[in-house]
TrEMBL record:
InterPro entries: DUF1036 (IPR009380). It comes from OCS116 cluster bacterium. Pfam families: DUF1036. The lineage of its organism: Bacteria, Pseudomonadati, Pseudomonadota, Alphaproteobacteria, OCS116 cluster. This is Peptidoglycan binding-like domain-containing protein.
Amino acid sequence: TQRAIMAFQRSININPNGKITDALFGALLKSAQVKQAKIGLNICNRTNYLAWAAVGYETADGDISSGWIKIEPDRCVKAIKGALEKRYYYTYAEAVDSNGIVVRDKNRDLMWGGGHTFCTKTTKFEISGRSSCQDRGFTEIDFNQIDTGEAESWTLNLE
């Protein structure tokens, strides 16, 4: 561990003495923040309307869906923190007006989904499983599949 500390100290031009100092701790924190900013699943709202988004993903224990993530116009939000470890993630989003009604623009509803059903509900949620949604008191919504390949980060633009 001391070797790792010294290697990090060298990489940031701090005296490589292996001691844990305030400067070292600050540099480690900054390095972690920079890395976190570069990885994960970001959703960017490129519309003039408030958007709400939900994400779905597969785990060893089954599928999970969670939401709602508030995304102001011309803003980005990190929907999944940390490096993307799976190849596939799923998203659904909708832009709404001041009354919470889905916006219709250029003859289409501003909703972004696809052909992969996940469970949701109208309030904040984290739901395990994606089958029998209605039987369990949830709403079924078709999410869009994102193929990240092996990327640690991905940005989805809502346009």
